[in-house]
Write a structure and sequence with these properties.
By secondary structure, the protein is α+β, with helices and mostly antiparallel strands. The chain has 3 domains: 11-153, Reverse transcriptase/Diguanylate cyclase domain (Alpha-Beta Plaits, 2-Layer Sandwich); 179-234, DNA polymerase, domain 1 (Orthogonal Bundle); 251-361, Dna Ligase, domain 1 (2-Layer Sandwich), CATH 3.30.1490. The protein contains 13 helices and 13 strands. A 5-stranded mixed beta sheet has the order 5-6-1-7-8. Strands 9-12-10-11-13 form a 5-stranded antiparallel beta sheet. Helix 4 packs antiparallel against helix 5, helix 10 packs across helix 11 (227-234) and helix 12 runs antiparallel to helix 13 (318-329).
Length: 362
């Protein structure tokens, strides 16, 4: 196939910066005895769960949201350390200040990653590649932590690129190479295409970006609904989303798909609280507060259930978010099947006081 660059490809220079094993790396930085060793941030108790894992632990298959007992089975020498979110937030603020030296167009995705539009960088550097290199060097100097970066002409490709040379590297996808890069990539690597959609695409003979690009919009919409048009665009390396700093959010959510189905309350509740913590960290960083808590679960047969509750005032602390999330997930017991995905979402930002109501949706 002939490669064709997007018609707007030269108009933007986007960097996606992703800190390397952020929580675990902060712990290894602050406690030298942990350096070079497999480290998990979280609790080692039977009900514990891994919040983050160092690269040394990842070599054994240890991943975030994994039950601690599973992680210890995979890596007997794994060292557990408690999380210190106040420290992680402080480091994240340091990194954000560095970003703002180069562009006001910074869109944080979490404590450890963000998009930057450096089309007109404030330091007058000659290229986005040079800008990313300087930013990574400054992060290392200021925090003693490494970051990886992806550089491209849109957000979709920049995020893909930041995974290419991890840890402590960067990768460029140019307008000339973008369509070919996407064509060669397995669809499972596309951000926004999860395991279930990948399985469906594979059944339809779609294994790679090139296979996806061969399908027209009508076919993709018939198979995947509204997402079909998005899949059609990204298969061609096209993404017109802007980097939008401090954009108003209607909700904040976090979810994780597990390598092994969760079959007991003891297995379900710790990772659910990790998702709630992720949501609350965003709330604390942005000041956002919402009234509606929603818990999402996907069973092993891919059926999705949600449970939600709207409070009479915005959630003001982590403990309340934990309490409501646990109450909602406990309405699913006894579990009809193993749970392969859990998520927590907080919504209803900026709404005034109202009478509390409970909504249980199957």
């Amino acid at each position: 196939m002939t490669e064709q660059a997007s018609p707007y490809a030269d108009s933007r220079k986007i960097i996606h910066v992703d800190m390397d094993a952020f929580f675990a790396s902060v712990e290894q930085r602050d406690f030298p005895e942990l350096r070079g060793k497999p480290v998990a941030v979280g609790s080692a108790s039977g009900r514990g769960v891994v919040a983050a894992a160092s690269y040394e632990a990842r070599r054994f298959g240890v991943r975030s949201a994994m039950p601690s007992v599973t992680a210890q089975r995979r890596c007997p020498d794994l060292i557990f350390v408690p999380h210190r979110f106040d420290v992680y937030r402080a480091v994240s603020r340091q990194i954000r200040e560095i970003f703002l030296d180069y562009t006001p167009l910074v869109e944080p995705l979490s404590l450890d990653e963000a998009y930057l539009d450096v089309t007109a960088n404030l330091r007058g550097l000659p290229s986005a590649t040079a800008t990313a290199s300087e930013i990574r060097a400054r992060i290392l100097e200021a925090t003693q932590l490494t970051a990886s970066a992806g550089i491209s002409y849109n957000k979709f490709l920049a995020k893909l690129a930041s995974d290419q040379n991890k840890p402590d590297g960067q990768f460029v996808i140019t307008p000339a190479t973008g369509p070919g890069f996407v064509a060669a990539l397995p669809v499972s690597r596309f951000h926004g295409i999860g395991p279930r959609t990948t399985e469906k695409m594979n059944r339809l003979g779609i294994q790679t970006g090139a296979d996806l690009r061969d399908k027209d919009v009508a076919f993709l919409q018939a198979q995947f609904g509204k997402a079909g048009r998005w899949y059609h665009a990204i298969s061609r390396g096209e993404d017109h989303r802007e980097v939008t700093p401090d954009r108003p959010r209607k909700s904040s959510g976090s979810e994780t798909t597990f390598a092994t189905d969760l079959t007991t309350p003891e297995a379900v509740e710790p990772p659910l609280l990790v998702q709630a913590d992720s949501v609350w960290e965003w709330c604390e960083r942005t000041g956002g507060r919402g009234r509606t808590v929603t818990v999402k679960a996907r069973y092993s047969d891919f059926r999705i259930v949600t449970r939600s509750r709207t409070l009479n005032a915005p959630v003001q602390d982590r403990a309340t978010l934990h309490e409501v999330s646990l109450a909602l997930v406990r309405t699913l017991y006894p579990l009809r099947l193993g749970v392969r995905l859990l998520g927590v979402t907080l919504s209803g930002f900026g709404e005034g006081d109202a009478e509390p109501q409970l909504s249980l949706l199957g």
